[in-house]
Predict the structure.
Amino acid sequence: MAATTFSSATPGLWHRIKGRLAAEWRRSKTSYLFIAPFMTLFVVFTVIPVLVSIVLSFTYFNTLQPPKWVGIDNYIRLFLDDDVFLIAVKNTFVFAAITGPLSYALCFIIAWLINELQPKVRAILTLLFYAPSISGNAYMIWLIMFSGDMYGYLNGLLLSWGVIDQPIQWLIDTRYMMPIVIIVTLWMSLGTSFLAFIAGLQGIDPTLYEAAAIDGVQNRWQELWYITLPSMRGYLMFGAILTITNSFAAAGQITALVGYPSTDYAVHTVMQHLQDYGTIRYEMGYASTIAVVLFFSMVGAQQIVQKLLAKLGQ
Amino acid sequence: MKERLYRKRLNRNLFGDIVIFIFLAAGASFTALPLVFAVSNAFKPLNELFLFPPQFFVRNPTLQNFADLFTLMGQSWVPLTRYISNSLLIVIFGMAGNLFFGSLAAYALSKHDFFGRNVINSLIVFSLMFAPAVLRIPNYLTIAFLGWIDTYWAVIVPAWASTLGLYLLRNFMDAMVPVSLLESARLDGASEFKIYWHIAMPIVKPAWLTLIILSFQQLWGTTGGEYIYSEALKPLPYALDQIVRGGIARQGVGSAAALIMMIVPIVVFVINQSKIVETMGTSGIK
């Protein structure tokens, strides 16, 4: 009965929708075919898993028994009962507020400066700056440098200069851990965004600079502000998103440097907290809750950056 | 070429260039440390590797580590060439699919106007911000459902869905490929695929050369993880990892292996970066 009512009441609407869809398909068939292979994989390997994990964030799921619906309990627990999470939020905020803008600026400034040099020098310099991202052992040298005994390079140096009279436990002492983690992160920040900026700078039409010179642009700084930055807007957004992801979801380099868990959770981040529940405790529901919260904070940061980038060159 | 170099020199002075070079060289000597360390380590004899306090530079360089590595690999049950070809297979197919499907979609998402385009573009950006750690279980189930466990596909096909590559390519298409150029090609009767392949792709060459670097590096480093467990299907990093785990005395062999694993992506990097630098901005419309 309900079905007949539906079909008799809405044939007009249904026909209109069908007509629109058919027209759209005829008009944009090529476009849909172009995106079809990628979109299929994207939906299967990203969109559906993300949706699944958003649903899981409202459940208790230990990966062995079927998930049990718990409503917003995970969210309540996360914000009201989980002291370690609040420490992680504070650390991640400090870490991201410092490394995010600085590493982003570094990526752009160094890419831009490299672009000022002769082509032959560029490829080599790019490799040297990218080295921490391409070599698997990047943290090794920092572990030696900050080693807590008197043979660690930094301790050795400070001892011989007489600045300190006993070695400092750089990677265990809560006073030094955050600065060290930040320094190492900045040192290895010239990664994917850096390469994208390098490539983007190659793509700027040289005639733009010629025209600008005729219009009265007198030095490289003015070129940077009036031509280069506005031409790079798309790549800058790309770099910003990667920077946000890297700084909000930092975990790997921190675990490699100070171990897991760090002393007094001094550099415990939200992403480490997530991995703790996801891969050590197998509380997938709770881990998904953290992922959802992390996701929305990144989207928030991204929206702010997008508004700022829109103002470039104005 | 001369004319281009001249263009480039507008608003520049030698003094500024020298200052920039010195500044960059100082920074680069700092970031290059892990490369120096890896090379130095690979040539250290065993007694130097275990020296305490650890030494940065090698004192008595030797090729013994490499010799040991090849002896060990020669004894392994699965021949070394098999591991290498497994790795190459994964890298080549994974990278080719990532590049082709990604750029095809990027072209349509950048230059075509169709229903759903903006939603898809935002979805792609947002997807980059979702923690991959929680997607592993759903992805494992999908791959198991498709029957791809313990096949190359389990590693290759997910690489095709890399949103990072697509987003990179789309940004370059947005900024570098002029719509007027595509319009005139359409008027000449070129098919969309031809326009994508012969016009758009050559213009965004710096973008896909960069994507090759990133994709290569990622796939070359894969160990097959939770998906591939047959010994004969394992890629090279897994085999080398096994050797290094053979005990503390394998430290020397381990550093030789680490250097060999590093050299291949570095060669790809240098080749591609030099090509990127060669492609000076050419907008196609004069």
Observations:
- Chain B touches chain A through 99 residues (CB under 8 Å).
- The two ends of chain B are 16 Å apart (CA to CA).
- Residues 71-278 of chain B form a domain with the MetI-like fold fold (CATH 1.10.3720.10).
